[in-house]
Structure formats: C-alpha cells, structure tokens
Amino acid sequence: MTRTHNFSVQLDRRHTDSQMHTLFPEDVLPMHLAETDFTTAQPIIDALAARVDHGMFGYVAESEGLALAVQHWMASRFQFPIEPQWVEYSPSVGSSLVFAVQAFTQPGDRVLIQTPVYHAFHSLIDNSGRIKAENPLKLHNGRYEIDFEDLERQLSNPRTKLMLLCNPHNPVGRCWTKLELTRIAELCQRYHVFVIADEVHADLAYEAFTHIPLPAISEEIAQQCMVTVNPSKTFNLAGMRASAAIIPNERWREAFRIALINNKAIDRPVFGIVALEAAYWHGGYYVDQLVAYLEENVRFVGEYLREHIPQIKLIQPEATYLLWLDARELGLPPEQLAPYFMREAKIAFRDGSSCGNGEGFLRMSVGFPIAVLERALHQMKQAVSKLG
Ligand SMILES: Cc1ncc(COP(=O)(O)O)c(C=O)c1O
Question: Domain containing 102: what range?
C-alpha cells in the first residue's frame, strides 16, 4: 500500500531556530525563501530516529551508501544511469558551486549565468574574483526563453570558462526542454566552456513536464559538466547539510575533490547522510504527492490573481515551488515593491531585482499548506486595493 503524506499540517517552527521563521517579525508570512513549510517524509524521520537510538555519532566514513542512493534516485526518477564513482559528497549545492568555481576557473575568468537567476549565483561569482557574464532570459508571451544568439556571443568570448545553468530554473520556473539543453550543450562544447547544472529543483517538475539531467543529453557534454543535487528543497532537509555532485569525468572530479579537501569540507554529517539516503531510496511516493499538491497550489494562486488581483501576473511555472510574479503594472518603483508588501500585506517576498534582470517582479514560495496561501492572497489583495 502506498503511503500518503499530509501536506496541509501547520506547525509552529519558531522555537526550532528556523531561519525562515525567525528572520522577520512573527506576524510576517515568510514566502521569500526556497524552503517548504511541509514536514519531511516519514521514512526519513524513521531512519533518523533509528540512528539517534544508536547513541554514538563519531566521524563518518566515506562509504558508498550515498553514491548508491544518488544512483538509484537518478535512475528511478529521471531514467538516467550513472556510475557510483561519479558521485562526490558536498555539504550543499551552494558550497559545490563555490568549490567548483575555485577549482575550474582562475581569477579574471568569466562565469556565465542566465538572468534573472537564484541570487546566490550572483554573489558567489562576485565574491570569487571572477567576472560575471550574463545571458538575459527573454520574456516572450508570458514564458521565459533563451536568447541563443546572445548565448553564443557570451560563450565564444575566450575568457568565458564556466556556465552556471539552473535546471529547472529558479526563479522563472522553466524546465528546459531536450532541444534547449541540446543547443546549450553544443555551444558549450564548441567553445570549451564547462557547465555546472544546478539541478536542485529537478524533483519538482510538474506532471506535463520532464526534467532532463544535462549529462543525459550526450556523452560529450557529460564529460564537460557537473550536476549538483540535494534532497533539501524537495524534502525540507536544508539543515542537514548533505548534497551530492555528479561529475562523470575523472579529471574534473579529482579537481573538485581537491577543492573539497582544501576547504576542509569533505567530512560527512552523520544525520545528513542518513537523511539523504532515506530520501533517495524511499521518498519517491512523497515527491509524487508533493508535486500534485504544489500544482494545485499554483492553480489556486493563478486563479485568485486573475480574479482578484489582475494587476499581478503569474508567470506559469513548469517546475519548482517558486512563483515569479510580474507586478510591474502596480506602478510601484521596483525598490519599493517588496517593502510595500512586507509593510502592507505582512508578507516577505524575494525582490525580483536581487535575481538580476527582474525589476518589478516578486518571487513567492507556494511550498505552504493551502490554508496559508489563502491567507496570503487575501492579505495581498487588501494591500493592492490600497494602491487605488
Ligand atoms: C537554484 C538553487 N541552487 C541552490 C540552492 C541552495 O541549495 P543548498 O541549500 O543546497 O545550498 C537554492 C536554494 O534556494 C536554489 O534555488
């Protein structure tokens, strides 16, 4: 019998030192972060409880368990066969990106991103002494698309050494198609640009869409890319600090591993490994139900906006629980947009401009029980009505 998970449970998280729930005053709904307000899957809780019961929590060996769990997940969810030796542990996707930039590029090299994009892509490049190059995504008939002419221009610059691809894309919600990924792969091969595919949102492709891991596109691009995954977004495990990097090519993998060692980041967290393995071996049912719940949340938000707040347009997502809202019609100066909703609606959104190329947009998480979303939308409506 399939297990069922109740995504409508509301728990008070403030006393757990939740960053999401303590950053703002208690009366503010924290919808700014890529973290759900759902309890994790029962098999993960059971595996952690069993480990706690053992009572000893010393240094953790580099066993093959993590790699086998990742291999199982990639095969069962994405029909992508990988070899266990391709998998490296890393504390988080963010850490993997920082280490990979260190390992694969030199100061002064250009690192390419597609804006608007997850804000940390900007800061990690800016903080690394590398040069940030941008391939702005184009909003066309309510859907973001890649400007391939500009992409080729950026990649053909001989100083461009690395591309950070967000697949599926935070915040615009695109689940890149086989055709798009093939074109990206061909261009990166032609200009010898290594690609890091951040696939942390891969589990959350909606029913009508298919996530394709970048290295599944061709053997050539597999040898010139790395994929970062983490059960954190899907299973609400961000505090566990256990993720994986999948690097098919041995030379690049070794360079990445050296960066992990040099940064003293190779040691595995006892509970993080247990949680990751339980998620990837036993969490499939949870993801199926989560995606269905999220799609219903997105449908609800879309309908509510159309009916009650038509000045705010939803960019229809294909994946992730992050909605990209076009609020330009409200007429507020971009820098006042998020603060306005914080003040008048008591909701924290991520300001679109922090993602680059996103002025006048807001990012809203719908990883919440539906009752919380209903409250949020009502508060938004009240706030917008004050604008006259
Ligand atoms: C695209 C993307 N990559 C990475 C992260 C962070 O993942 P981690 O907690 O593993 O660093 C996020 C979280 O918002 C994200 O959206």
Answer: 45-282
